[in-house]
Design goal:
232 residues, 56% helix, Butyryl-CoA Dehydrogenase, subunit A, domain 3
């Protein structure tokens, strides 16, 4: 492939990596990871609410990695309550998983920025063969993509397996018991998925630019090098 086309491909990959870093940073700082509805089970059972009456006992919950909000509704009107994970909910949530999600998010941002820098360096500079060249580009893209996948797996297990929404909804609730009525992943979670796919796309762009994968080397390269050495 001509050098000019390779520069364009590397520029596109670098811009995509930088955009992923910004998107991941914005996603981590927001509370739009999970949105759901919570049912005040105790209140609904007290008045035997059914049909339209049940709607008076359904509140809302929305949270991210650091903070969130829930609307406590038990038939007496909604009351929004703000909360933060640190340090309020550390005793309730699976803290090790939650902290791991944040750490992998930070690593994803770092390596997305590193990948963007090396893509631009390969586009306009003189790349080295190992660190800045195709091996390094594959490495940064692979690490960033892997971190994005780990974030989604860990956070999904925290929400679904450990019933994170119910634990948050019942935090410091003495007389009322809340149950998750419905929940779904929100925009920030899907941004991480898009960023992971973009880093996988960057690996394909490197291959499209004409670089072989690091583990696929031509068998004839050693023979050709030996012949050239003999000539000189």
């Amino acid at each position: 492939m001509p050098a000019q086309q390779k520069k364009i491909i590397f520029c596109i990959a670098g811009v995509l990596s930088f955009a992923c870093a910004l998107g991941t940073a914005a996603a981590i700082g927001t509370q739009r990871w999970v949105k759901g509805m919570i049912l005040c089970k105790t209140g609904a059972l007290l008045v035997n609410a059914t049909g339209q009456e049940l709607e008076k006992f359904i509140g809302e919950i929305q949270y991210g990695l650091f903070h969130g909000e829930r609307v406590r509704q038990c038939g007496l009107g909604g009351r929004p309550i703000q909360f933060s994970f640190f340090p309020d909910l550390l005793k309730v949530i699976p803290a090790s998983i939650h902290v791991s999600v944040i750490l992998f998010g930070t690593v994803l941002i770092i390596f997305a920025l590193v990948g963007a820098g090396f893509f631009m360096f390969n586009a306009f500079g003189s790349p080295y063969e190992t660190l800045h060249g195709p091996v390094g580009l594959y490495l940064w893209s692979f690490i960033a993509c892997s971190c994005g996948c780990l974030i989604m797996i860990l956070f999904s297990s925290e929400v679904k397996i450990h019933h994170l929404s119910e634990k948050i909804a019942n935090f410091k609730e003495g007389s009322f018991t809340f149950k998750t009525h419905s929940e779904q992943f929100a925009n920030s979670f899907w941004i991480i998925l898009v960023c992971s796919l973009v880093h996988f796309l960057n690996a394909l762009l490197i291959r499209f630019a004409g670089f072989q994968f690091p583990f696929s080397k031509s068998k004839d390269s050693g023979t050709i090098t030996g012949a050239v050495d003999l000539m000189y």
